[in-house]
Every structure is written in structure tokens, then in C-alpha cells.
Amino acid sequence: MSMSLTTEILQIAGSLAILGAFLATQLKGLRPTSPSYLVPNLLGSTVLAIQAGVASQWGFLLLEGSWSLVSAAGLMQLLRRRVLRRSVTD
After folding, report:
1. Which of 39, 68, 69, 88 is exposed most, by the fewest CB atoms within 10 A?
2. Considering only CA atoms, which of 39, 51, 44, 41 is closest in space to residue 6?
């Protein structure tokens, strides 16, 4: 597999992860604060941000890097809430 084909496959996989989560929020009522939305967004945007950085596509890196950071922050917030709930119930 050539490097460009591998790059294309990674870009498509990252894009599909983001788009799949977005589509699920629109059609199935998936909450944008749920792990089922945030994890694919984090993974997909991270892959695309790395690809953009390697290719020196700064605008795309800004977009996907920001998307990745926001998704990571959302997941961290969920984890903190779960830890706090467990400590209160213990």
C-alpha cells in the first residue's frame, strides 16, 4: 500500500467517524454530549489534524485541532462527573 493510499484511507476513516456521529445526532437523537458522539469526533478529528499538520494545511489543522480539543474537553467533563457521582454514592 502506498503512502498516499494509506493517507487517503486514514482521511476517509477520520471523516466518516465525524460524519457518522453527526448523522446519528441528526437522525437518531444522539446527544452531542454523549461518549458515542464525542469519541468518534475525537478520534476522527485527531487523525485529520495530524494529516493536516504533516501536509502543512494550517487552516485545516486549526479546524480539526480545535474540534479535537473540544471533543477531548467534553470527554474529560463526562469522566469528572462520573468520578464525582461515584465518590458521592460510595
Report:
1. 88
2. 51
